[in-house]
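call fold target=Cytochrome c oxidase assembly protein CtaG
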Amino acid sequence: MSTDDDKANINTSTGISNNNKTVRKLLLVVVAMFGFGFALVPLYDVFCDITGLNGKTNDTAATYEAGGIDKLRTVKVQFITRNAKGIPWEFEPVINEISVHPGEMKLVSFYAKNNASHDIIGQAVPSVSPGLAANYFHKIECFCFTQQPLAAGKDVEMSLQFYVDLELPADINTLTLSYTLYDITEKSS
């Protein structure tokens, strides 16, 4: 005959065994989630490359091929800027929007002023929306290709030379080019 103490010991050891299994399973889930988090960035980049979503533009200069200008079509290109947290610069487009004909090369400028009491190196990161349009927006020359050192209190006009591809889908009539400016001074040292 078993006593109540024997039953309690059996239930306790079974409970400890179940707890150990649960802890192991939870630890495995945590490790898997941690690994998945690291894999998300390259997976997201591949997804954006395949689908054309997110409006990532090429970070290399395009070459302008004079293949004609579609004077029957006009596309509005809007310019938006923003500063990442912690960069004390004024940063804005000289003009907020421009009309272009596909195939036509345009030159626009952006204004930046370092309001800090120390020198800062900035880097602008572009994005085009709608995301599909990023494949048809070609930068020939852009301040975003290089780091922008700016002394304390100084200002500068930075240029962007671009064209919109003749193959831009007919249903896209407006493109928005957005730049986010980051302080990369410490990373450049």
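return ok
Residues 1-51 form one domain. The chain has two helices and nine strands.
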